[in-house]
Structure formats: structure tokens, C-alpha cells
Amino acid sequence: MSRTAPADFELADIIAERWSPRAYADKPVEKEKILSVLEAARWAASSYGAQPWSYIIATKDDPVEYEKLLSVLVPFNQGWANSAPVLLLSIALTVTADGKPNPLALHDVGAASTTLALQATALGLQAHQMAGIEPEKAKELYDLPEGAVAVSAIALGYVGDPSGLPDFLKERELAPRVRKSLPEFVFTGKFGEPSGLVK
Ligand SMILES: Cc1cc2nc3c(=O)[nH]c(=O)nc-3n(C[C@H](O)[C@H](O)[C@H](O)COP(=O)(O)O)c2cc1C
Fold it and tell me: 21 C-alpha to center of ligand 1: Å?
């Protein structure tokens, strides 16, 4: 199933083809592909090159670790993400090695996870990020050190058949993809003043 973005201007294929499914195929992800998406996160840009991210990963091949990671998700997300053969949890390292706060850590974790998601698309997979997690539970279950904060879970796998989803999720899976237009968020001179470039 493809959900190509109905873009107004040219997009690279992996951007147009990336989307966040809630139905995954019952098919494992090859180890090389898992390593490839993690490698993509590795090469994301970060403020001062700090790379303030870590990932916890679990696959269905290891049911104990898979269930442990699944249990960090809120019930709504558990309800659909349990079809994904791979789950990840992104962690922000909000304190630098020399003990200073890193105010850009969350930003950079988002960049790393987006880079991971785009590589997934390039490999014929899709990733779905989830803010709906219980960070305190993650901290306890994974013994996160001081300053390490669970940010989002990520479901990863091959897209599956949405017909098995509950009706309200099936509708969302098939609904048109919409976005703000460029003048709604690209300004020049003053916040809220659409740039002449995009009018
Ligand atoms: C940081 C982040 C957190 C998200 N959290 C959730 C979530 O908890 N549950 C969920 O079903 N979708 C979640 N999403 C998916 C968004 O709803 C989805 O990206 C958005 O609707 C745009 O759809 P698209 O990714 O298919 O383009 C999240 C996405 C991001 C980037």
C-alpha cells in the first residue's frame, strides 16, 4: 500500500513515500535492513555533533524483550503497534558528558529518528513514531541513567493489510493526507506574515 504525499512542489521519493502505518505485515525485517536504518540515525546531524540519542530495540524474535518494549507504549498504541515486527525506543541524552544541559537534545533525537524513518522508506519499510509512551516506566524498566529521557517509540516493518484494523483506525489509514500550506508556516519580516516566496 502506497500513500504518496500529494505535494505542491517537488519532493525526493523517500519523502513523498514515507508515511506512518498502523498495520504491519507478519514478516520479519532482515537484519541488514535493521542495521541500515540504525546506521541512518547514526549519520543524522546534531548540535555540536553531540549525537545525543540512544535507541533500545526489540524484535518479535525475542518475545520477552519485545513485550517489555511494547509495555512502555500507552494502551492505544499497543493496540496497533503489536503488529510491527520491530519496536524501538528513542532516548535523549539531555546532559552532556561534562555535565552541562543540552537544550537541543530533543530536537536532535527527532532529527535522528526522522533520518531513520526515511532510510526505512528507502528500503521498502515504514516507521511510525509514537509520543504515546510512559517515560517513567521506560526509565525504570531500562535503568536509564540521570539525564536520559525516553522520547518516542517507533514501530518498524513492512506495511500490512489495514482490513484487520478496527474501523476508526482503518478510516485514518485510508484518509487523504493533508498538511498546512507553505504560507501558513513560512514567514518573512514578521511572524505570521507569509513570505513573498511562497504566496
Ligand atoms: C514525534 C511523533 C509522535 C507521534 N506519536 C504518535 C502516537 O503516539 N500514536 C500514533 O498513532 N501516531 C503518532 N504519530 C504519528 C503522527 O500522527 C503522524 O506522523 C502524522 O499524522 C502524519 O502522518 P504521516 O506520518 O503518515 O505523514 C507521531 C508522530 C511523530 C513524529
Answer: 9
Query: Which pTM does this prediction carry?
Result: 0.97
Residues in contact with ligand 1 by the CB-under-6-Å rule are 19-20, 77, 129-132, 152, 177
Residues in the chain: 199
> Would you state the pLDDT for residue 197?
96
C-alpha cell of 64? 520477552
At 2, the pLDDT band (50, 70, 90 cuts) reads confident
